[in-house]
Design goal:
By secondary structure, the chain is mainly α. It has one domain. Helix content is 62%, strand content 0%. α2 packs across α6. The chain is globular. It starts with a helix and ends in a 16-residue tail after the last helix. The relative contact order is 0.13.
């Protein structure tokens, strides 16, 4: 027996908070994603839930913005957060770029790969490349 629509909504609200506060930042740290902070994940999810800058649609104030989403918007935000967890930084970069565009800001650049990550196997980072034979 289901708890009804109110129970479903409360479950989505709990899922949203857990995803934004814990799961997404943890995955971002582990995967070295371009977005890492919980409030940035919240911004991205809220913006996409309402299709604009969230604060142009939802009220700023005593009631948290995510609690102002209707059921469909909230379910969409949770589904999007889960999709980001599944697909990672490539999806997140695109979602963040749109969120920033709604604010008139340029997208973030991905950090350059560390020298250790780009070094040839068996060669230490910063070591000179071997010369080719004439």
């Amino acid at each position: 027996m289901s708890g009804g629509p109110d129970a479903d909504r409360e479950g989505l609200l709990r899922d949203y908070r857990r995803l934004v506060d814990v799961a997404l930042p943890a995955a971002a740290r582990e995967g070295r994603w371009v977005v890492r902070h919980d409030h940035c994940f919240g911004r991205i999810l809220l913006d996409h839930a309402v299709g604009a800058r969230w604060y142009d649609v939802l009220e700023r104030g005593r009631v948290p913005a995510y609690r102002q989403l209707d059921d469909a918007q909230l379910a969409g935000a949770v589904a999007m957060a889960r999709e980001v967890l599944a697909r990672g930084d490539d999806l997140l970069v695109a979602l963040d770029a749109q969120s920033l565009a709604w604010r008139g800001k340029a997208p973030k650049r991905r950090p350059a790969a560390s020298p250790a990550a780009t070094a040839a196997p068996g060669r230490s980072p910063g070591a000179p490349r071997p010369r080719s034979s004439p």
